[in-house]
Write a structure and sequence with these properties.
about 350 residues, alpha+beta, OB fold (Dihydrolipoamide Acetyltransferase, E2P), 2 domains, 6-stranded mixed sheet, 5-stranded antiparallel sheet, about 25% helix
């Protein structure tokens, strides 16, 4: 499935101009509040008619202003999951889920799909309950299930975790991963969280002030997304768990990383996101420090930026970014090719 968007739209003084093509998987729209993410999703979903442009999903043209074509939202077969679950309070979970089937237009396999969706989202024990008895994470899982049972060709998720606390976000993220990996439904996912994007996305589209500034694979584009700090994404696998200290060791090309214990089994793929501000450099192997993660590498590039400099490190072929003051760069006499040790203060570990 491909999503091809090329639109221009004006709302008051705000101008949205977006052009990108996404590939199968999760396409994350990333940007600050007011960058145009929700407006763009609403155009794809048929809630907003753009001033100019074209939207195509899986080869079907949904919008073409030159041809005056605008497919109504109820005919687009697009599921929408909002920040709040928007469940019907007077219906049970089962009835809320079955509501999605009213929009299938005779699509077969509904009973089997119902069972598989319930299993996929782990909501079998909730079917007879009402929404007011559910946690925020449970409500969102039900909302996702309702959208899936409408047999969508595309699922839109507009910051579905924004209203949840950290514990509820941690609860629901694995289910969105299952959705990405097993349901076979492409997802357009809106977020301003680098951690969420690192965990879920296949493709990243960066929006800034209504314009697309970068599009591409998550490993290439995500470091650009965290514009205020910069950072690096390392592919890794779970090597083993240390139950005594509640730690998990991740193995990567750059070296081993220790993080708070993950629920993922040994061998599971993960992504480690490391902000440049969380990396210190040393010319000697550090001793007697509290930081658990130290990676050996060499300076590949130094890019001055005002009073600071972004240091690109080569750690056995993997890229790691550090941000230092110009004074620190001078004091350490850093130049390309110089061996260093990167002391990592914090790692955001994310399932791949």
């Amino acid at each position: 499935m491909s999503l091809d968007v090329d639109i221009k739209h004006r709302h008051g003084t705000f101008h949205l101009q977006a052009r990108f093509v996404s590939q199968p998987g999760v396409t994350a729209l990333f940007g600050r509040s007011g960058s145009g993410k929700t407006t763009l999703v609403n155009i794809v979903g048929g809630l907003i008619r753009p001033d100019r442009g074209r939207v195509t999903v899986d080869g079907q043209v949904l919008v073409d202003t030159d041809r005056r074509l605008f497919v109504p939202r109820h005919r687009r077969r697009i599921g929408y999951v909002f920040q709040d679950s928007r469940l019907f309070p007077h219906l049970s979970v089962r009835q809320n889920l079955l509501y999605g089937r009213w929009f299938t237009s005779g699509t077969g396999g509904a009973v089997a799909d119902f069972d598989s969706v319930v299993e996929l989202l782990g909501i079998g024990a909730l079917l007879d309950r009402r929404p007011d008895s559910l946690s925020g994470g449970e409500k969102q899982r039900v909302a996702i299930g309702r959208a899936l049972l409408a047999h969508p060709r595309l699922l839109l998720m507009d910051e579905p975790l924004a209203s949840l606390d950290e514990a509820r976000r941690a609860e629901i993220l694995p289910y969105i991963e299952r959705l990405r990996d097993k349901a076979g439904v492409p997802i357009l996912y809106v977020s301003h969280s680098v951690a969420e994007v690192a965990r879920l996305a296949t493709t990243v589209v960066i929006l800034s002030d209504g314009k697309v500034t970068a599009v591409g694979p998550v490993l290439d584009i995500l470091p650009l997304a965290d514009a205020s700090d910069g950072g690096s994404v390392l592919d890794a696998v779970v090597a083993h768990h240390d139950e005594g200290f509640q730690l998990t060791t991740l193995a990567s090309v750059a070296g081993e990383l220790q993080v708070p214990r993950l629920s993922a089994p040994a061998g599971a793929s993960v992504r480690a996101y490391i902000r440049a501000r969380d990396v210190m450099l040393s010319l000697q192997p550090p001793q007697e420090i509290s930081a658990l993660n130290v990676l050996a590498g060499k300076v590949a590039q130094i890019v001055p930026s005002g009073a600071q400099a972004d240091i690109r490190l080569d750690c056995n072929g993997a890229v790691l970014m550090a941000r230092l003051t110009n004074k620190s760069v001078q004091r350490l006499a850093l130049v390309p090719g110089r061996p260093v040790y990167a002391v990592i203060k914090s790692v955001s570990f994310e399932r791949s």
